[in-house]
Amino acid sequence: MPNKRSGGGLSPTQQAAKFLGVSVLAGAVMAGIALPAVGALGLAAKGSVEGFDELPANLKQPPLSQRTTILDSQGDQIATVYSRDRTVVDLKEISPYMQQAIIAIEDARFYQHGAIDLKGVLRALNRNAQSGGVTQGASTLTQQLVKNVAVEEAGDDPTLVAQATQQTLGRKIQELRHAIQLEEELGKKKILENYLNITFFGQQSYGVEAASRRYFSKSAKDLKLGEAALLAGIVQSPSRYDPVNDPQEATKRRNVVLQRMADVGDISQAEADKTKKAPLGLDISKPKNGCITAVKNGGFFCAYVREVFLNDPVFGKTKEDRAKIWNQGGLTIQTTMDPKAQKSVQASIKDHVNQKDEVATAATIVEPGTGKILAMGQSRPYGMDVKQNETTINLSVDESMGGGAGYQPGSTFKPIVAAAALEGGMPATKSYSAPYEMEYPSPISVCGGKNWVNTDGTKLTNENESEVGPYSMKRATALSVNTYFVQMIADIGICPVTEMAGKMGVERADGDKIGQNPSIALGTQEMSPLTMANAYATFAARGMYCTPIAIESITQRVGEQSKSLEVPKSTCSRAMSENTADTINTLLSGVVEDGTGTQAGLQDGRDNAGKTGTTDFRYAAWFVGYTPNMAGAVWVGDPAHERRMVNVTIGGRTYPKVFGGEVPGPIWRDMMSGALEGEPAPDFNLVYIPEERPDRGRGDDNDNDNGRGNDNRNGDDEGGLIGGIDGGTFPTPEFTIPEGFIQGQGNGGNNGNGNGGFG
């Protein structure tokens, strides 16, 4: 076999092809297409060896696009995503039957010729001339590889794909030039390996490994004779010989391949005849592509990871650069998603909100001090079926990251106002008159040395008329008193609040700036659950804010090499002093102990804190809370901002009015309980905040100091506040105020539900 070669130098056949010039080249490249006689082609300018050598020889070989695998923090698969379902494998990982079958049917003289098979060309020309059309081609595997490389480079651009496959003499000559280059550089075995990895086998399968798993649910190294023959036969026409949609045609084609293998001596005729009688033996695996296939209800987490990749400059300077890497694939992405936390989030959601409810819920858990997003879930599943309430909108994140326009956080914004005030020197014992109703104070300073002015006498109220001050900061926080926090923001100005929000990563979900308006104290600026969870993680981390991250590491396989990619790192900065954070933690511990969030409080002895929130007209309700090692946010509402949560059924239960402590609170409690199971239970660094007795009581007032007597309220104060002070003592997180320090005994109670902050 004088023409057999292992790479390097031109074979005699190639030299002959070059020497023969236009006459042979034209026939060679046009063997598979119908064109006029060679004399009419006008190729004299390129009819010499020198002219042929002037053609560009550098074939641009893009890395083959492959599937990307997304893993949770424990290394278990969440989903696979790809633009083309392909897994590149070495030739030694491909069944010898498969190698023999593809060579037998596509290029039986593969190991005997160079880039062009002149015998095959002459045979094809003769057959085509006899038939008067194109009945046989003569492209070698090397030439087919060149064409497939061009198609791969074209990607999904139909214009570029058409150019890469157009049947013109110029492209075919260039294809031959590149084929000679590959023969010189790669050698036969590498060409065969590349061909089997790049070729399309139908049913979304690119490369023999993906095809083997698609049709037979096994690796390419395990393919048997009949299976290999079937796959080899598909290549010529993946749609015509599709065994899923047309098993009869596929069987005929498989048998052609088997006979060809017998004819060239790869198998015996007896083997061929026996295998021809066997069924196809398909074991179909459905394509598993995209976040819609994610397990562990990780579809939205998967989608968020994709958005991070496409938006973060660490992965490329431009969005086009990043998209190219993403589509190229071959990535193994280990995320921060904690499987235990994710399972707990979704279980809690399922227990409290139904998929087809008029309203939805979204929940996120973040790790304080690291920014790691541990879980992300919602009641409306990831999918396209609108009738089933499926959606691809991630209700937990900002609009730019695949989410919606956000939701007013209501009173969950109030601790940010308090943090700004404390950081500016306000004592934690500060009291305000906090009447039931008042006009917005005016003027109030804003950023830039200007003032906000209440030009039309706009008023605000507390949730119910029984909420009348004066109140201290601790009690106002527990009760979520609107007028208290508006008086506070009037004192300190709006700019310190927006600056504090910025330090805590709090921004509008639609990307706009937070408005310079005192109503921000009541949570009127639309935020996402991830934003609020991560902001509260700042309190849990004693004032350190860390940017949220979803990716731990990425490795990418390019060809036979694997490399690590740089990933976004969480950057941490001090948003407030430790003392300010500790004070907020103390205030918010009171919310879950005897304030509006008692239904959210954890029952296992863990330190926990949080804040309820209900917006004006009840379009949204929240609970955002945390322990020292996890922070979570739960939102409930209508994503379209149309359905008020009044007389609404959620999770099979009808609510006259929805408030943050009653619906989001229990969701938070259950999801956090499961996520924290078996985890350490560190303590907060709580501070002593004296409960300064205002000049009025809230129970039976024995001192006649303007008390309100038995306060059995029936308003909407978000969830079961104990209205009276019981026994003359005010419980604090770490201290009991000595007997006699405060006069008078309370004997009140309530079943009220006070607002956490009108929008």
From TrEMBL:
Residues 691-716 have a biased composition (Basic and acidic residues). Gene3D superfamilies: Biosynthetic peptidoglycan transglycosylase-like, DD-peptidase/beta-lactamase superfamily. GO terms for molecular function: penicillin binding; peptidoglycan glycosyltransferase activity; serine-type D-Ala-D-Ala carboxypeptidase activity. Residues 75-261 form the Glycosyl transferase family domain. Residues 743-759 have a biased composition (Gly residues). One of its GO terms (cellular component) is outer membrane-bounded periplasmic space. In the N-terminal section; belongs to the glycosyltransferase 51 family. This is Carboxypeptidase. It comes from Streptomyces capitiformicae. The lineage of its organism: Bacteria, Bacillati, Actinomycetota, Actinomycetes, Kitasatosporales.
